[in-house]
Amino acid sequence: MGCNCPNCNHVRVGLEAPKWVSSLAIIDDVKRAFWMVDATPDLSRQYDFLMSIVPGDYTFEGIILTHAHIGHYLGLVYLGKEAFSAKNISIIATDRMIQFLVNNAPFSQLVELGNIRLFPTETSVPIKLTERLAISLLPVPHRNEFSDTAAVQISGYQSSLLYVPDIDDWNFWQVGLNNAVTSVSIAILDGTFFNEHELPNRARNEIPHPTVMETMERLQSVVDSLSTKVYFTHLNHSNRLWDKGTMAEIEERGFRVVGQGEQFVL
Ligand SMILES: [Zn+2]
Ligand SMILES: [Zn+2]
Ligand SMILES: [Zn+2]
Predict the structure, then answer these.
(1) If you measure from the C-alpha of residue 69 to the centroid of ligand 1, how many angstroms do you get, rounded to a whole number?
(2) What percent of the chain has pLDDT above 90?
């Protein structure tokens, strides 16, 4: 809002398509059901996209929430009676995140009217979504004003995927970046900022994130050994990775930016 950087202006004048806020969907073709990871302000468009790729009889079972920052939960409001009027969509999140929804309007109304039902979930314990599909919420250090923050590990039929859209600093993560990444086949990580210099007008210590440059440094040997594919997501509008040349540079090093609508088979 109100930004006149070249990336934002290109979208404003139609040279680039608007990019959706980061989110995942988990689709189980045996159970014929799907879940979303986070309810972003783009939830309506992301749901429409899902409807275009899953058969019509698949059910929308639930949403796994990582934390209470606007890009990750604000879309829940569209489940209410003014819009989608959902029935019993399962909300899977940490206890503190669930308490935030229960105690604050308009989210509390979704609970009262049965649009959503709440599943407070212990961290680091696998939760079975279906016979062969499980998720774990892993606590991560982040600016936790209203809730705590979780990463999500998704274990599928043959392999697993780690999703860490937000973290303040890899150094303070008790799981350990290398441990977490090498225990999955696909890691989709916080790529908010490319380097330390891209936001000259904001105090970076108020919005801490590891930079893409730092994360690549830490994970270069993992990527070189081909044990895990590492992707970035959650890019700020200021991120140099929106430039095709910079994207090609990180691809050269074996890293990727996850594409909008890209699919992985687990
Ligand atoms: Zn901008
Ligand atoms: Zn956040
Ligand atoms: Zn975020």
Answers:
(1) 19
(2) 93
